[in-house]
Amino acid sequence: MRERLLAAESVKSIEWADGRLNLLDQRKLPIKEVWLGYDSAASVAGAIRDMVVRGAPAIGISAAYGVVLAIRARTAGDGDWRQALEEDFKVLADSRPTAVNLFWALNQMRERLARLKPGEDPCAALEAQAISIHESDREANLAMAQFGVELIRRHQGNPQNFLTHCNTGALATGGFGTALGVLRAAHLEGLVERVYVDETRPWLQGSRLTAWELLGDGVPATLNVDSAAAHLMKSKGISWVVVGADRITGNGDVANKIGTYQLAVLAMHHGVRFMVVAPSSTIDMVLESGDDIPIEERAGSELLEVDGRRFAANVEAFNPVFDVTPADLIDAIVTEKGVVERPNAAKMSALMSRKRLH
Ligand code: MRU
Fold first, then answer.
1. Is residue 246 among the annotated active site residues?
2. Is residue 156 part of an annotated ligand binding site?
3. Which of 33, 91, 212, 249 maximizes the CB count within 10 A of its CB?
4. Both 271 and 151 in a single domain?
5. What is the per-residue pLDDT for 356?
6. In a domain, 131, yes or no
7. Ligand 1, from 103, 246, 336: best to mutate by most atoms within 8 Å of Cβ?
8. How far apart are CA 341 and CA 178, in angstroms?
9. The predicted structure's pLDDT at residue 68
10. pTM across the whole model
11. Where is the site Transition state stabilizer (predicted)?
């Protein structure tokens, strides 16, 4: 299946070329395909904060390249570049709080820095590390797609209806996606009747990004408002909800795009299976439970305005952009290391001690 999956890779959102980071501006999609270039850590942090690049793995990969840009600038100047670099790490770490992939990638870069040998070029070493983070995310996507398809097939081998939320595809990762990667692979294997796509208020990652990616691959897709989920599960014979994650804690609780938790509650009520697909870089074994995850709250204007024009009453808005789904509502967490069914703390520790299987 690997070769077919590689052949199906089409969209890219992150490009490292000639020592510069290029990002496809996801705020403009699908109306315009605009690439923006970045050459400093501060500007990369701004791109993450302002949603030019979004999706947990893509944020981590971009931050790693941000460190490469930073070390190049710092080592070109006078003084203690290691100390100066700390400021860049901080600026990047402060860009968004919930997706742990950001902090995971920064830690990987920091650890590589600590392993520098005497006389080794720090810029070249960190560039190689960032490229390896990017490449290994692509590989993880391929492994997860295969595990996810096996899981779907194990429960039912006929074409089925799926529901997904937010965007977890090529735009959100270094490869062709986590949850969307599984759905792409399931389509190639003839297991998809239709994918229902939650609009995903307020940034519309579903209607703008996921629908665009699925149509590009010829996957039958239908858009629905987020609040149609219960009705969909009752009336359209949905077999699986398949979503990504921004942070998974040691007990298997999952933070993901706001609205994911209610989907899991609804899925349990309707007997619909619930699958979370995420690389191990999204798993934070330091946090015991989802109660400890910092949940990003963004500006109320994201709810009150469209294209900078106010349409809502003069009311205060509450805009948390992630929520936490408790482990006991999840049928399976699919990672590149393998699948955890009915997750709990013991199963999550066992998973994290495994080597990659694919
Ligand atoms: O606010 P966003 O668009 O960065 O949120 C993205 C999500 O919630 C995704 O589901 C998650 O990051 C997984 S992406 C493979």
1. yes
2. no
3. 249
4. yes
5. 59
6. yes
7. 246
8. 17
9. 98
10. 0.97
11. 166
